[in-house]
Specification:
Strand content: 5-15%
CATH topology of the largest domain: TIM Barrel
Number of domains: 2
CATH architecture of the largest domain: Alpha-Beta Barrel
Radius of gyration: 18 Å
Number of helices: 13
Structural class: alpha/beta
Order of helices and strands: HHHHEHEHEHEHEHEHEHEHH
């Protein structure tokens, strides 16, 4: 059974990177509507208005939020500028509605796959708009072929903006070195296990070894007082993180537990009730194909839930 689930997870992560499949779904209205029934469980909505309502409700009961307009690998300058404009809209909506929320984005969504200069220009626009309202901007992790470019862009931009954060993937072997360089900047480090399919020599497979590696990085961040986000649904890691917090006693602005909207919400609620700062990560838009594949890949048995959503949604 475990081998079958592992195989399913690998297949889903490969499917997530299939641009042809994604484009086919986005352009086939019937198929789009069918599969979106499964995606609705995990996304804030198709637009910012729908997502802002959910963020407001979560803020009211004590959750901070992250908001990301879904998309990656834009191929034209216009697409990159259009995406940048939407992230600026998010900043404005956070300001107008008084939301307790951060902005998250993929650098390849705002032009990294086209030009590093274009990406940096667009990132500066977003960070400049955000910093005036004390809004945090978090750069998401992407596939391994972009890791160097993502981290280098972050380090350059972090010299100008103290509201910029970065995501590091614990399963990559290289993170052991990357985290030393990244920690020299003051920005929050959002620590995730890692969801992208990679060649075997680049990453640690899911299991206890990966959990221990994640906790090793987290211990270093908490013990040094570096701002961090504990972005995982793994109950074991959350429990061990709680023990570290008891030891190091970081202030509430140093750390937060983060979960994706629609996934294992009971665990995050329990952490909130214990007094820990918590954050719910919302994504919205129409390019939910990759996101849906990766969410099901993390918990392959949720494929049955997705089928139920499709049939009965």
């Amino acid at each position: 059974m475990n081998e079958l689930l592992t195989s399913a997870a690998v297949s889903l992560r490969k499917a997530a990177l299939n641009e042809e499949a994604k484009n086919y779904i986005l352009n086939n209205r019937v198929l789009f509507e069918i599969l979106k029934k499964a995606a609705d469980r995990f996304i804030g909505g198709e637009d910012l208005n729908e997502t802002a309502l959910k963020v407001t409700k979560h803020n009211e009961i004590g959750y901070r939020s992250g908001i990301e307009f879904m998309g990656e690998n834009t191929r034209t300058v216009k697409e990159a500028h259009d995406a940048t404009a939407e992230f600026l809209n998010i900043c404005e909506r956070i300001k107008i509605d008084g939301l307790n929320a951060a902005v998250s984005l993929d650098l390849s969504h705002i032009g990294l796959s086209i030009s590093k200069a274009l990406c940096m220009e667009n990132l500066h626009q977003i960070c400049s708009a955000a910093i005036t309202e004390n809004i945090e901007v978090t750069i998401s992790a992407e596939s391994t072929d972009k890791t160097d470019a993502v981290l280098n862009t972050y380090l350059r931009a972090a010299e100008d903006f103290n509201n910029l954060s970065i995501t590091l993937q614990a399963y990559l072997h290289r993170t052991k070195d990357d985290i030393l360089d990244i920690a020299k900047s003051d920005g929050r480090i959002r620590l995730v296990k890692g969801a992208f399919d990679t060649p075997a020599n680049l990453s640690i497979p899911r299991g206890q070894k990966l959990c221990e590696r994640y906790l090793e990085y987290l211990d270093g961040l908490l013990s040094s007082g570096h701002r961090c986000a504990i972005a995982t649904h793994d109950a074991y890691i959350q429990q061990q993180a709680e023990q570290m917090i008891k030891i190091y006693k970081p202030t509430a602005n140093i750390y937060e537990f983060e979960s994706l909207y629609g996934i294992q919400t009971d665990q995050l609620l329990s952490l909130k009730e214990k007094g820990h700062p918590v954050k719910v990560y919302f994504v919205y838009g129409k390019e939910w194909y990759l996101y849906l594949c990766n969410r099901i890949a993390e918990h392959p048995l949720s494929l049955f839930t997705a089928l139920n959503d499709i049939v009965n949604g």
